[in-house]
Amino acid sequence: MERITSLQNARVKAWCRLRQKKERDVQKRFLADGDHLIEEAYTAGILETVITDREEPYRDIETVFVNEAVMHKICGTVSTVHAVGVCQKIETWPEASRRVLILDNVQDPGNVGTLIRTARSFSYDAVYCSADSCDLYNEKTIRSTQGAMFHIPVIYCDIPQLIRELQRDGFTVYSAALDASIPLSEAAEKDKMALILGNEGQGIRKNVQAASNACVRIEMDGFESLNVAVAGGILMYRFRG
Amino acid sequence: MERITSLQNARVKAWCRLRQKKERDVQKRFLADGDHLIEEAYTAGILETVITDREEPYRDIETVFVNEAVMHKICGTVSTVHAVGVCQKIETWPEASRRVLILDNVQDPGNVGTLIRTARSFSYDAVYCSADSCDLYNEKTIRSTQGAMFHIPVIYCDIPQLIRELQRDGFTVYSAALDASIPLSEAAEKDKMALILGNEGQGIRKNVQAASNACVRIEMDGFESLNVAVAGGILMYRFRG
């Protein structure tokens, strides 16, 4: 079993670079911090290597022992985890779908992660994100999913084209918009549904909104302001799978 | 108008200490970062002083001009704001209430702030927090409220005692619990309602749950995991004021 104590080691440097999206795209790998996510990655069959400062090999997976300094370099300054998993990026596609969530340029990693977690809990079949949405493999996104990302396909794609394909496949596509005319309590439930949520500041892009079948609003009074992950939770609960 | 350029200035030191809860309790003041929150604090009538590195006095409020170094010290390393408001702590009490939210040891500032924002948007009359919940005046909590904290009373108190008083006043008190027997869609709406949400890891304390009238669960399938702010949003939308 390998043992690394040098901060200059080539593997250590390559792992540290996985904190950047560009490098994750090149290496097609990402880091999962802590025992819970490592366990989930193992179950999902994408765990390649475990880096740890504890003297225990992880199951049948390549385990690399490192000292505290190397662990600290890989984890960054704030983290207190004792094991980090190196994982292959997930590539899953939904089979038959009835409920999908679409994120149009949602930027905050906590929001994206929480929305994926909620989608999984309400039996959604997939989450689609515009290419400019926050990266799934950002460490804060991963943490906010609480492991749900290993149980639901998350796909980055062109949203207007996706909407056309969904509609051809019989989906009704709802955009969530504060100024929409249909209140959520009056929006009809359909057999196949897609919900679109937009950017924290700007909302859903005009062309995306225009391509959807209808815009629905969550009924509020006075101070009309909801976090996008909260709005998504209310909508997905109403139209749960 | 005062102008401060020394990092050792006594007022600067006192303002910096407001980043700690202990000092906020002693000084009975807190800091509001950025123009939007300053404006909200002004409207609420609690804004005392504006500290800025711009050459503009703020309305009729004492404005202190500081250089970049002082601004940086007050804002910490990450912030990029050009004005910080020194505010008196808010002391408001609800008058007649019909809907209240109760937080039992919710710890994450983003969750507490988001729940306050959601409560305001669904016309709740007050948010009550256990004494060990995250501080309202934490800068991350303030930011997550998006200004809603200036429009709804937030009160720290003893929760079991509060529940007894609410029940005497005719309130039905629901605890949100994953393993509860009443599904949300079957929980009756009442004239006066209180909803309790619990800690991110442990949920609602046993004695608090026992004091409530009933426990309700949000219907989920399989991966049962919701962020507490999302769960609160679903419940408050269902029982909005």
Report on this model:
The structure is a homodimer of 241-residue chains. Chain A is α/β, with parallel strands linked by helices. Chain A folds into two domains: 3-88, 60s Ribosomal Protein L30, Chain: A (2-Layer Sandwich), CATH 3.30.1330; 99-238, Alpha/beta knot. Chain A is built from nine helices and twelve strands. A seven-stranded parallel sheet of chain A has the order 8-7-6-11-9-12-10, sandwiched between helices. In chain A, helix 1 packs parallel to helix 4. The interface between A and B is medium-sized, with 32 and 32 residues.
How would you summarize the topology of this molecule?
The structure is a homodimer of 241-residue chains.
Chain A: E1 3-4, H1 10-17, H2 21-27, E2 29-33, H3 35-43, E3 47-52, E4 62-66, H4 68-75, E5 83-88, E6 99-104, H5 109-121, E7 126-130, H6 139-145, E8 154-157, H7 159-168, E9 172-176, E10 182-183, E11 193-198, H8 206-211, E12 214-217, H9 228-238
Helix pairs in contact in A: 1-4, 5-6, 5-9
